[in-house]
């Protein structure tokens, strides 16, 4: 497959009139100028690395807990329309019996022949989180970080557990060490911890923070929280839900200014109601109401996951920060690929890397998504 007459966003430059050749599942060549061979004329549209969402529960009627036995495949085939080529599918807090059932179903899915965008594994969000910052998690089911239960989840998922969100202050560092030893990315979040309490986990190797500002202690000059800890350490990668709802424009600009494009990864945190009509749905076992892109708990109006698409969040981040296209791909693809130790395979456009890419129009709407050389969405 040849894509030509495109603006191609590489790591450190933009080819204004370039071509990209795909052979099997990899990028064979990228070049500047015209090419004689037949191919898809993109008429000046953008080619970017495929988006990687490390925190998405689901959408289009399904998520980790919602839907039939084919729900993981259903999501994989649908999410390409957002420009996502790879993702971690996130769970929410449930009782242990339900957790076992869901993680076993997920493990079985990961072991089958799959279509669509490619799931890299699970991001377990809850139950190891703080009651004070529970967000849309069932308070009755929350527990302290537990190595024994996590070992069970690893087995249930067929060793496809890749990231866990947990309140670092609810453990003494042993859980953080356990995750790192088991090659699971430790992500600190849903916590009321002090910035000073973040230090022990940071020094042990925890360098990822779940949806910065949302579900955590913030910037209070007499009680600096996790937000301050995450900002003070330049090398901590922070997830940002840039839908314009979870964070106000001024906060998006603030994060961009203080963390820099090199230390942000855009996420959706989207749940099953994304892409569906407004109405009542469930996040895990909790009733929620979707209005536009906003999803809230029916009980108290608290934000409950999200209803925005990844490409919407990309456009919103660009709008409010005025980030360059080279900075944008750091926040959508490069940074998280490095964090997940897959940057040698994907996350940027280069010969011999996997052909994971998204074609965007001039307004950054998705025109085509290619995951490992296969077109998984075409407008």
TrEMBL record:
Keywords: Carbohydrate metabolism, Hydrolase, Metal-binding. The keyword Hydrolase applies. Signal peptide: none annotated. CDD domains: NagA (cd00854). Its cofactor is a divalent metal cation. Pfam families: Amidohydro_1 (PF01979). One of its GO terms (molecular function) is metal ion binding. The active site is at residue 269. Residues 46-376 form the Amidohydrolase-related domain. Binds 1 divalent metal cation per subunit. GO terms for biological process: N-acetylglucosamine catabolic process. Zn(2+) binds at residues 125, 190, 211. Belongs to the metallo-dependent hydrolases superfamily. NagA family. This is N-acetylglucosamine-6-phosphate deacetylase.
